[in-house]
Amino acid sequence: MSDLSYWEELFLQGRLDELSTAAMDLTRVHFGDSVFLRGLLEYSNHCSSNCLYCGIRRDNPRVVRYRLDDRMIYSAVDAGFSRGLRTFVLQGGEDPEFGTDRMCRLVRGIKKRTGGMAAVTLSCGILSREAYAALKAAGADRYLLRFETSDPELHRYLRDGVSLERRLKALDDLRSLGFQTGSGFMVGLPGEDDELVLRNIRLARELELDMIGIGPFIPHPETPLGESPQVPLEKTLLATAMLRLTCPKAHIPATTAAGSLEPDGRERMLRSGANVLMPNISPVEVKPHYLLYPGKICLDEDGLHCIGCLAGKVALVGRKLDFDRADGRVIHDRTESRASV
Fold first, then answer.
1. 16, 31, 303, 341: which has the fewest C-beta neighbours closer than 10 Å?
2. Per-residue DSSP letters for 177-211?
3. Which helix (H) or strand (E) segment is 29 a member of?
């Protein structure tokens, strides 16, 4: 039996303590005690997509919609950079007002304001290969595009007809263009079982992802899945540990959704192999309106103020904050292996 088969058996048995211990040992091999920071900036909650699980879906009439202007985006980046952040994640709904030209301008502006020292990560959905190429040429370093589930039928159902194949084609375009590429999935979706979670993890491994974001599915009452049952956080912790054991060099965030489900959720993800935190540096006045799920934490707090709080939290689990931009290691290994062929 291979090592991964052994860990998968423990996963199916729910052996969280053993998996988390092994995952933490492996995290320290590759990252030491470091927990890397990425400043998250939610620039728009307008979205043309209608995913069944998402609180800012197109057909939710109760959302108070907003768009940050360029000045507000640059102001947040300036403040974060002065505080030591060296990675900024620009995330938004699939908003046509933030087209390729505007996003390229923002990327170039951030690069100029930070002297090229900051990494820019984008998360703005499926785009054409030509659009991704333009963003890369403008200076974007990384792109996040979660596949959410490896089940094609479930994917099409949840994403209002969008196929998993189309999602995976976009990820392939991103990798081939040289982006450090991130994806991931939700744990606890309606109709999901443990075998499907393992298939999600195997897909993440096959994709050679530099970053893998997962978190618990939290039903939003203003969506078609609002009546779905809440799966315990332990399922997400088991998946986090399995991800670390399966994809040892990938960056794995301790997600806000975990902290929203349980007060110590992010700390528990760190104990299970996560190595990244993403303080939300969006303006406080718009934070309550970017609700992908209910009960989201830290909506009334300045994200930069939260950094001190996060330092205390990671110290409780024997880790330390690291402000290094921490470029992806998987892509480096991939490049080196191709160069040696």
1. 341
2. TT-EEEEEEEES-TT--HHHHHHHHHHHHHTT-SE
3. helix 16-31
Confidence at residue 154, expressed as pLDDT on a 0 to 100 scale: 97
d(CA 186, CA 200): 9
Strand order in the sheet with 34-37: 276-277, 34-37, 320-322
In the 8-state DSSP scheme, what is residue 289? G
If you compute the radius of gyration of the chain from its CA atoms, what whole number of angstroms results? 19
**Whole-number pLDDT of residue 303:** 85
Q: How far apart are CA 144 and CA 125, in angstroms?
A: 8
> For residue 38, which of 291, 298, 290, 251 has the smallest C-alpha distance?
251
Residue whose tokens read 């303006």 = 283
Task: Tell me how far apart the alpha carbons of residues 122 and 135 are, in angstroms, rounded to a whole number.
Answer: 9
Q: pTM, whole model, 2 decimals?
A: 0.95
SS3 per residue for 18-71: HHHHHHHHHHHHHHCCEEEECEEEEEECCCCCCCCCCCCCCCCCCCCCCECCHH
How many other C-beta atoms lie within 10 A of the C-beta of residue 94? 16
* pLDDT at 308 (0 to 100): 86
Strands 39-44 and 34-37: unpaired
| Of the candidates 48, 56, 52, 54, the residue with the CA atom closest to the CA atom of residue 288 | 56
> Are residues 72 and 107 in contact, defined by beta-carbon separation less than 8 angstroms?
no
* Residues 287 and 299: beta-carbon distance below 8 Å: yes
At position 143, the amino acid (one-letter code) is Y
Mean per-residue pLDDT pooled into runs of 10, the chain (341 residues): 86 98 97 97 98 98 98 97 97 97 98 98 98 98 98 97 98 98 97 97 97 98 97 98 98 97 97 97 97 94 87 95 89 50 31
Q: Which two tokens stand for residue 307?
A: 């950094």
pLDDT number for residue 330: 66
pLDDT of the residue at 221 = 97
Q: Are 224 and 52 in contact (CB under 8 A)?
A: yes
Token pair 């104990």 is at which residue?
A: 271
Query: Which amino acid would we find at residue 201?
Result: I
